[in-house]
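Minutes, project huddle
Topic: does the predicted pose make sense with adenosine-5'-[phenylalaninyl-phosphate] bound?
PN asked that the exact inputs be recorded in the minutes so nobody has to dig through chat later. Recorded below.
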Amino acid sequence: MFVGSDVEEIAATKTVEQLRELRTKLLGKKSRLSQDLAGLTKLPPDQRRAEGERLNRRKRELEAAFDERERALAVGQLDTALERERVDVTLPGRPLRVGRHHPITATIRELTRVFTGMGFEAVEGPEVEWDYYNFEVLNIPRDHPAREKYASLWVSNPLGDDPQRPMLLRTHTSPMQARIMERRKPPVRVIVPGRCFRYEATDPTHESIFFQFEGLAIDDRLTMADLKGVLYSFARQMFGGDRKIRFRNDYFPFVEPGADVAVDCFVCDGKGCRTCGHSGWIELLGAGMVHPNVLRAVGYDPDRYQGFAFGGGVERLSQLRQGVPDLRAFQQNDVRWLSAFGQVS
Ligand code: FA5
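Predicted holo structure (tokens), as shared on screen:
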């Protein structure tokens, strides 16, 4: 038995598996060496010691050779793996497609930021509404001519229709005025963005599904001056100082006095064009001081509390901010248009 040739054989193994097999062969229970070690007891005592030392030395030599080879193979394996899985960090990366906010979402976020900065809280409400909240509580009883302004989409109640409680897709966000006041005591300061629906023909500034934002502030000393101050501040923050704002008398049954607020047309700078219906102005908001009848209907004392409300179109704001001449583009989901007008947040 030549230790030298065994050690060479160990050093010549190429894989961890080969090495394992060889270890079993040379050091395993059935190996010659193990059998010789087991047979030591049968030797006469005067030979046992010398033979024992020789066999154990050989065992240590083989073990050392195995350990060394095992280390070398492991390092080799790692090198191969590293070489195989090498990453070229100098290659240019593949660009990730970054999503964008739809311009309506971006505008809602922006206007919410502006109003929350003035102390308003953002809330949301139902899109399917009772006639009561959409009209009646807002001082628009049945047969009131103001209902004609809101071409409504009536829906049937899945729990059974009740002629006394008709349901519709809300035509404006104003029903939330009453819902909020019923639930809270003054002071109230909320902003309500949301989807609205009207059964009407579309044109560059009208859609049948569109978004509004409602504002409501109730306290014991609010005046029309507060309303104008809030809306001027809002307009300046949204459009910068250049755009002109116009307040005109208007009629909404749920406010008194009422106003219509317009911004000069961004396409023609007020000269008159298709987008502004040749008037030079784009109507942005309806507003006014909350009507005492509305306050009474929700259980507020109109002699003690008063406040203002306003409601505007989100698409109109978005059109003005981004120079979009036709509002119908917002609903068309053209990816090219969305990637041009969408906003990375
Ligand atoms: C209202 O809906 C009132 N609720 C607003 C209001 C609230 C007045 C609180 C007083 C106090 P109006 O119908 O004018 O009013 O609509 C308000 C705004 O919604 C409009 O100025 C316009 O910007 C937007 N809007 C109305 N109809 C459409 C439509 N079909 N498509 C897109 N935007 C619309």
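Observations noted during the meeting:
- The longest strand covers residues 209-219.
- The mean pLDDT is 91.
No decisions taken; revisit at the next huddle.
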